From TrEMBL:
GO terms for molecular function: DNA binding. PANTHER family: HTH-TYPE TRANSCRIPTIONAL REGULATOR XRE (PTHR46558:SF11), TRACRIPTIONAL REGULATORY PROTEIN-RELATED-RELATED (PTHR46558). SMART domains: HTH_XRE (SM00530). Pfam families: HTH_3. This is DNA-binding phage protein. Residues 8-62 form the HTH cro/C1-type domain. It comes from Clostridium butyricum E4 str. BoNT E BL5262. Keywords: DNA-binding. InterPro entries: Cro/C1-type_HTH, Lambda_DNA-bd_dom_sf.
Length: 118
C-alpha cells in the first residue's frame, strides 16, 4: 500500500506542481510538505483536508482507502463510455480531447443529467 507521502508526490507529478506550489495552496511551508512526502511527518485534520482539495483527491484515498479511488475511476470510465456514445451518435470523437477538455465535458454532462457533483 502506498504511503500518504507517496500519493502526494505522485499527484504532484501528475498535476505538474512543485512542493512549493502545494505548500502555497495549503498555507504551510515547503519544508512541511517535504516532511509529509518523506514520511517524517503526517498531515492531520484540516491540513490533510486542504491537501486533498488542492490535489483533487479525497482524504479517504490519502489515508489508504484504495477502493475509494477505484470506485471513482469506475464511475469516470462509465461516464466516459456514456459521453463517447453521445459523441459518436453525432459523428464526433473523444480521441483528440485532453484531460482538461474531458473534465469540462464531464461537468456539462453531469449538469445536463441533473446529477449534483461535489
Amino acid at each position: 500500500m502506498k504511503t500518504i507521502g507517496r500519493k502526494i508526490e505522485e499527484r504532484l507529478q501528475e498535476l505538474d506542481l512543485s512542493q512549493k506550489d502545494l505548500a502555497d495552496k495549503v498555507n504551510v511551508t515547503e519544508a512541511t510538505i517535504s516532511r509529509y512526502i518523506t514520511g517524517t511527518r503526517s498531515p492531520r485534520g484540516e491540513i490533510l483536508s486542504r491537501i486533498a482539495v488542492a490535489l483533487g483527491l479525497t482524504t479517504d484515498y490519502l489515508l489508504g482507502n484504495e477502493s475509494m479511488e477505484n470506485d471513482i475511476k469506475l464511475i469516470v470510465n462509465k461516464k466516459y463510455d456514456d459521453i463517447s456514445k453521445v459523441f459518436n451518435k453525432k459523428g464526433l470523437s473523444l480521441d483528440n480531447i485532453d484531460s482538461d477538455e474531458f473534465e469540462t465535458i464531464l461537468d456539462m454532462y453531469i449538469l445536463a443529467k441533473g446529477i449534483k457533483k461535489d
